[in-house]
Amino acid sequence: MRESISARESVRDQEPRSRKGMFVLSVIVIVFLGLSASFLFGAFYRPYTAVYLTSGDVYYGKLSTFPGVTLHDPWFIQRTEDGNFSLLKFSDAFWKPGNSMRISSDKIIFTSRLQKDSPIVDAIEGKSPRGAIQEGAPAANQQGAQGGAANIPSGAQPAGSTE
To answer: Average pLDDT of 118-138?
Structure first.
């Protein structure tokens, strides 16, 4: 009789542990599924941002600020010889920089998120031609336009390089 009572007590002692384990496992699975769904459905979408620098240059891309200020997939506007504007991808420059740019935070005047219907975003995403930026757009990177080639602004360097 005493053996059956102690066997019942040991089963009762294990039930709370097993319930705790199932609860913890359930919470982990729910968090994992939530993060996966958020990632798949764009909750971590980074909008395009305009970054205005002290040099007068303006770059457009996806901005991250941790661990340092980095502009991913950077683009810039350059005035062409005929006076129009052209949107150029930073990584397509003749010196073949990487597809991201670290920017010294003390060289940034301000940043501004671009709306999804912005002509810059449309051109970057291929919804309109890159050379079709209208005259009303800000005349960014005038220094690069005058010299015939794009320039790296002071305080910016391709990501991965040392300062």
So the answer is: 71
Confidence (pTM): 0.56
Q: Output the CA–CA distances (angstroms, integers) from residue 125 to 57, 59, 60, 87, 106, in the order listed.
A: 21, 16, 12, 12, 30
Contacts of 145 (CB under 8 A, 6+ apart): 78, 79, 80, 139
Q: Which two tokens stand for residue 102?
A: 């670290």
Which residue bears the tokens 């991913």?
72
The Cα–Cα gap between 52 and 110 comes to 6
Q: Which amino acid is residue 129, in one-letter code? A: P
Using one digit for the tens of pLDDT, what is the confidence trace for 44-96?
668 999 999 999 999 999 998 888 899 999 999 888 888 888 889 999 888 88
53, 109 Cβ separation under 8 angstroms: yes
